[in-house]
């Protein structure tokens, strides 16, 4: 296994990683993940455990909660946070099961329109236990139409509305979502997994003034270990905590909780603010440069860390684009675009994101270079093998966190 881990370390360092949901965690985060905390069982919550020997773990969990509330400037009298959910899908599942009786209706952005599996996709368990109304982007602008959303929600009357996405490049208007939720008596949950780090860094609107519940993973723009946080208004605290434990999980992963605390501390530093701003600058430059080269960007651009490139517009299938770029050491994922004419397994687009390369210190100038490579490879006028050599030299100048 040691050799395989080394091989993966080598792979990660040797490529330009444009996967929008990945990042490079710091050594301190990785050390906490690999610490002796993995040896402990601590079912329950601080001060209320079902095992002895939890005096240290209690402090770990309390500190993580404090840091999470502090990072997003939340008043602990009004907001609480659960730090035990193991990842994003279970975190969302726990919120639904705490707040919405089975068989009732919820609403979320459709998966094929930028939403997420756990927002009621038909292949997700979330659609086995609840009914869903899915909202879409406007066919022309490829941006959410809040007028249409208002009418749809008034008709559907969901008990809970999920705002959030995994492949949508625009700002969300949380104030409008609040108004819509109020107009149909729904709870408003925001899944900020993709943009949590941008909110923390002050470069994306905060959902907290408007949402009742906010979930996030901790390993994307937030740059922590794999994991999740569930923030809730105090009135939902008991129900959500019970849904996480004992409802859906046993012992929390205390090593993961500690690593989340490390990442939350890192995210309060001024350097993180700069990092978050640079992520968005880089995404805008990369999208802009590709646009100049004649590529179609879904919705015309980006306000965040990612965008979708419609490669089928140039006759290339998403899967072929993903493979071609990978052969040159550039890692992206194929992705459906709104109203896609192709199948999800080989869709019309690729998703491109900048959190990981920005961690390595890549800035606007280099984004233009990356755009040249991406465009040149996909248009078949650059040899992927030659580019791979150039990429290998390029990435050496931008080392991964040690
Ligand atoms: N799989 C993640 C993504 O790539 O967006 C979301 O869970």
Roughly how many Å is the radius of gyration? 21 Å
- The total number of structural domains is 2
Average residue pLDDT: 98
Strand order of the largest sheet: 4-10-9-8-7-5-6
Bound molecules: D-serine
Please report the distance between the alpha carbons of the first and last residues.
20 Å
Low-confidence stretches: none
> Can you give the helix content as a percent range?
40-55%
CATH top level class name of the largest domain: Alpha Beta
Count every helix, treating DSSP H or I runs of 4 or more residues as helices: 15
CATH architecture of the largest domain: 3-Layer(aba) Sandwich
Q: Provide the succession of SSEs.
A: HEHEEHEHEHEHEHEHEEHHHEHEEEHHH
Strand content: 5-15%
Number of strands: 14
CATH-defined topology of the largest domain? Aspartate Aminotransferase, domain 2
Q: What structural class do the secondary elements suggest?
A: alpha/beta
> What is the global morphology?
globular
Features:
43% helix, binds D-serine, 15 helices, 2 domains, single chain, Aspartate Aminotransferase, domain 1, alpha/beta, 14 strands, globular, Aspartate Aminotransferase, domain 2, 402 residues
Structure description:
The protein is 43% helix and 14% strand. The protein is of the alpha/beta class and 402 residues long. It has 2 domains: 27-266, Aspartate Aminotransferase, domain 2; 270-396, Aspartate Aminotransferase, domain 1 (Alpha-Beta Complex). The chain contains 15 helices and 14 strands. The model has no long low-confidence stretch (mean pLDDT 98). The site of D-serine (DSN) has 4 residues, from loops.
């Amino acid at each position: 296994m040691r050799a395989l881990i080394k091989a993966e370390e080598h792979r990660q360092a040797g490529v330009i990683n444009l996967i929008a949901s990945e990042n490079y965690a710091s050594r301190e985060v990785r050390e906490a993940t690999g610490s002796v905390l993995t040896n402990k069982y601590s079912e329950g919550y601080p001060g209320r455990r079902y095992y002895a020997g939890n005096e240290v773990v209690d402090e770990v969990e309390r500190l993580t909660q404090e840091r999470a509330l502090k990072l997003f400037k939340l008043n602990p009298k009004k907001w609480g946070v659960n730090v035990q959910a193991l990842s994003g899908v279970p975190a969302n599942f726990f919120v639904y099961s705490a707040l919405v009786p089975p068989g009732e209706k919820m609403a979320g952005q459709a998966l094929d329109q930028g939403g997420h599996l756990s927002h009621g996709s038909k292949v997700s368990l979330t659609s086995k236990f609840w009914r869903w109304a899915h909202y879409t982007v406007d066919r022309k602008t490829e941006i959410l139409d809040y007028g249409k959303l208002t009418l749809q929600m008034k008709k559907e009357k969901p008990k809970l509305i999920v705002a959030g996405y995994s492949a949508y490049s625009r700002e969300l208007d949380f104030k409008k979502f609040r108004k819509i939720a109020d107009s149909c008596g729904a709870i408003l949950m925001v899944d900020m997994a993709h943009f949590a780090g941008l909110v923390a860094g002050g470069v994306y609107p905060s959902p907290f003034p408007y949402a009742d519940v906010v979930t996030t993973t901790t390993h994307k723009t937030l740059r922590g270990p794999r994991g999740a946080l569930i923030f809730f208004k105090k009135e939902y605290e008991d129900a959500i905590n019970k849904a996480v434990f004992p409802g859906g999980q046993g012992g929390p992963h205390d090593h993961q909780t500690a690593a989340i605390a490390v990442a939350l501390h890192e995210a309060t530093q001024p350097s993180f603010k700069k990092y978050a701003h640079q992520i968005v600058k880089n995404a805008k430059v990369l999208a802009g440069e590709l646009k100049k080269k004649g590529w179609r960007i879904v919705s015309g651009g980006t306000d965040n860390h990612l965008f979708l490139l419609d490669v089928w517009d140039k006759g290339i299938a998403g899967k072929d684009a993903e493979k071609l770029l990978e052969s040159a050491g550039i890692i992206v994922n194929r992705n459906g675009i709104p109203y896609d004419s192709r199948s999800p397994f080989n869709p019309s687009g690729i998703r491109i994101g900048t959190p990981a390369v920005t961690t390595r210190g890549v800035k606007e100038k280099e984004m233009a270079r990356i755009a040249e490579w991406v465009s040149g490879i996909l248009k078949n006028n650059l040899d992927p093998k030659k580019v791979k050599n150039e990429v290998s030299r390029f990435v050496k100048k931008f080392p991964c966190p040690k």
